[in-house]
Amino acid sequence: MAAAAARITAVDTYDIRFPTSRELDGSDAMNPDPDYSAAYLVLRTDAEDALEGHGFSFTIGRGNDVQVAAINALRPHVIGRPVAELCADPASLYRVLVGDSQLRWLGPEKGVMHMAIGAVVNAVWDLAAKRAGKPLWRLLADATPEWLVSQVDFRYLTDALTPDQAIELLQRGRSGLAEREARLLHQGYPGYTTSPGWLGYSDEKLTRLAHQALAEGFTQIKLKVGADLADDIRRCRAARNAVGPDIRLAIDANQRWNVAEAITWTKALAEFDPYWIEEPTSPDDVLGHAAIRTGVAPIKVATGEHVQNRIVFKQLLQAGSIDVLQLDAARVGGVNENLAILLLAARFGVPVCPHAGGVGLCELVQHLSMFDYLALSGSTEDRVIEYVDHLHEHFLDPVTIERGHYRAPRAPGFSAQMLPESIARFSYPDGDFWAADLARTEGTRP
Ligand SMILES: [Mg+2]
Known about the structure:
Elements: E1 8-17, E2 37-45, E3 53-59, H1 64-78, H2 83-88, H3 90-99, H4 111-132, H5 136-142, H6 145-150, H7 163-173, H8 177-187, E4 189-197, H9 203-215, E5 220-224, H10 229-243, E6 248-252, H11 259-268, E7 274-278, H12 286-296, E8 300-303, H13 310-318, E9 324-325, H14 334-348, H15 361-375, E10 385-387, E11 401-402, E12 405-406, H16 420-426, H17 432-440
Parallel strand pairs: 4-5, 4-10, 5-6, 6-7, 7-8, 8-9
Antiparallel strand pairs: 1-2, 2-3, 4-12, 11-12
The protein binds magnesium ion (MG).
Magnesium ion binds at residues 252, 254, 278-279, 305, 355.
């Protein structure tokens, strides 16, 4: 099919689950048994280049089938779209998906349906970047401020950020871009590691992994907290002893506490000099976060991985609720909404330290931070991307970490593509792994 006439011909979906709960990888105070999963999709076209767009939502096991069903519900909006037009203006599809008047009832702009929109929109960006022959971070950094702003939905934002203000931020952000790109390609983008700190790990394993993080060049690690205060005190002491006084130690409660409890618990850990407390309470509690921030200062407050959309981020910033904004590549409405969130953070001068880990979240979010550095915030100071060292082997273009830094990806696309053999093996329930596992444990699993 001639390039100009090519259309989207298929949206193929897959329920992919990894049995990570067996080793307590990913365990925290609210999620004791996560099986890291991806509701995964592939956009196929009839173009001669045979390029595909890959995207996914991250979930943790049961419910991944629900997430896949939500992606399937969007299929009629995608099939038949002209590829060139879609890739030249991903916002055209974003607006249709967010605006579906019947599906919108299930949100609006939150939850399972919104995550499905994010997966589809991100797949479009993957396809657009592949067609442009650029990694996504470069496609975004090369774009004009006007075009980037055309990709943002300013509905519900203009009391905090107008399109004109966004253009001004992006114009200012471009100054010195070439120099920063050279630095990015040479040094990479700073990361921090959560690998030592899962709640289910023994103190011995925590200490060993903290030492390993130091040896690998990380300058920040993170510990899960919030299940038992005596345990947290013991684990924070072990971690601080392992890394010494100069490494930043973040703590993460995964929404475990009420507001007053968050303040007392965090203060009880203050002697270990935590850098930030992450997700101290419900991600919807804008004013609660503001109270916690006042109560625990100078310890910083961070949240974002479960923040539903740009409107809640706007309020967190307006209310002075957070010191650190932790956007997630696959929670909100894809790249388009994350551009809005990056612009809001720049407007309020709050550093973005993305949530990652899970399945493929490191692969995706590195592109957004690198764009932010090159063409918007212009700084990596107090900015780090979360890193967790599992499941990267299932990706075609996995992240590369050197001396605690993310190397800038070079391959065209959004680094979203999983290996076909991984998709086949871990598809639930019929992939080789799960078919064998379910046969072995028949009748004993929920
Ligand atoms: Mg977290």
